[in-house]
Amino acid sequence: MKLKTIIHKAEEGGYWAEIPAIPGCVTQGDSFEELLKNIYEAVEACLSVDTPTNL
Q1: CB atoms closer than 10 angstroms to residue 54
Q2: Over the range 30-49, which residues count as b (16 or more CB within 10 Å of their CB) and which as e?
Q3: Which residue in 26, 17, 30 sits closest to 46, CA to CA?
Q4: What does the pLDDT look like over 13-55, one tens digit per residue?
Q5: Distance CA 47, CA 22 (A)
Q6: What angle do CA 35, 12, 27 make, to 5 degrees?
Q7: Where does residue 12 fall: left (phi above 0), alpha (psi -120 to 50 degrees), or beta otherwise?
Q8: Are 2 and 14 in contact (CB under 8 A)?
Q9: Closest to 27 measured CA to CA, from 46, 12, 13
């Protein structure tokens, strides 16, 4: 699966990223390498959240 990811440089140092296709899915890292690891973890966490079903 490919997801567009927008990476930003944080003003206080490091980086943060957002995944527009998954509302609210954002992460950060002190280095670019840490950010990449955190992106994979954030996407997995965001996609594994259970949503209520209509009864």
Answers
A1: 3
A2: eeeeebeebbeebbeebeee
A3: 26
A4: 999 999 999 999 999 999 999 999 999 999 999 999 766 664 5
A5: 8
A6: 30
A7: alpha
A8: no
A9: 46
